[in-house]
Design goal:
homodimer; about 210 residues; 4 strands; Glutathione S-transferase Yfyf (Class Pi), Chain A, domain 2; alpha+beta; Glutaredoxin; 4-stranded mixed beta sheet
């Protein structure tokens, strides 16, 4: 299986980390344009969704969307279970994984792409037409990220991991979100000591380097 | 199981439609503030995520996030399979379900909540702090919705249903998206005849009235 990857982007990292936790070796193909903050034209022309990552199976099927790629890997390689075992565990993990993505990572992307001039006309990935930056959206993203940190801290005061008592895909999405936020100078607020404790534990895993 | 519902909102409709297709009877509890475009305070105070829908299980566990609620229902009531049978089918359906949600429904919400004055200070659901409307985001949403219609039309020129040859959860998300867009006067463009054909087929299902 080929993973179309871009090393500087957070979303491919989620898949690399997930595969590492599973012990799955992927054939990683870098499709960033060297030295430029954008994907290479030949990848964009070949992939109708114009985003990374995507996973190409041996029969040529191309799967997009991080949680979908990860679920596929879970289906063909169930151990260790990273989406939970029972329906209730799966729901708990699934809910928190989405909270991290939509309430944490999405705001980080809003901040980055609507603030930084290098993203002029490319304020959203995946579009062939120009999407202009909206500075007010970067500010909104910052506000949302603050709310997310508080929510995550409250969750991690009750649970060791984001999804409950075991490491799961929710921790991967949460970890990559905090890494992205930190890179954008919105690191973990001092008051969020539960997030700091959890972040240190995840950062110490081998997969964090994947 | 109790479904906390708000009849005017699109997201609870996705769950109602999914449950109807499965033949699952949910105890539907309406939590909208009567006559107001907002949720009732007692629901907001009790639900830390401050959004609908949520599903309360008989043991008191509360599950949030539409795709997570639907997956839980699929796990406890597998027939008919609405998330696909094989890992590849599941991936295809999962990918398109997310495309509908993030590239179709999210823009509809951007248009509605950033344009309509009734949403002053509530441009995003789920936040206890004021989130101001950004008019430029409504315009961006409209642009994105146009791209989504084209993408969906291309997909439905190759496939009978959004996820492939069988009706699935992707059709539910796609259908509710098109209904929401139409309500916001962004109905199916004339050129998108495949979307029109598919929409008529889904609208004719009993579950479309759920």
């Amino acid at each position: 299986m080929k993973l179309y990857n871009w090393n500087v982007a957070p979303n491919p990292r989620r898949v690399r980390m997930f595969a590492h936790e599973k012990g799955i070796e992927l054939d990683v193909v870098d499709v960033g344009e060297p030295g430029q903050p954008r994907l290479a034209d030949n990848y964009l022309d070949a992939n109708p969704h114009r985003i990374v990552p995507s996973l190409e199976l041996d029969d040529g099927t191309v799967i997009g969307e991080v949680p979908v790629i990860c679920r596929y890997l879970e289906a063909i390689h169930p151990a260790p279970p990273l989406f939970g075992r029972t329906p209730i565990e799966q729901a708990e993990i699934g809910m928190w994984e989405r909270k991290c993505e939509l309430e944490g990572m999405a705001p980080c992307a809003e901040i980055l792409r609507n603030k930084v001039k290098a993203f002029d006309g490319r304020a959203l990935p995946g579009y062939a037409i120009p999407i202009e930056r909206i500075e007010a959206l970067a500010d909104r993203g910052k506000l949302r990220l603050g709310v997310f940190y508080e929510k995550l801290d409250a969750r991690l005061s009750d649970a060791e991991y984001i999804g409950g008592d075991a490491f799961s895909v929710a921790d991967i999405t949460g970890f990559v979100t905090v890494e992205m936020a930190t890179q954008g100078r919105n690191g973990i607020p001092e008051a969020c000591s539960n997030v700091s404790r959890w972040h240190a534990a995840i950062a110490a895993r081998e997969s964090a380097k994947a």
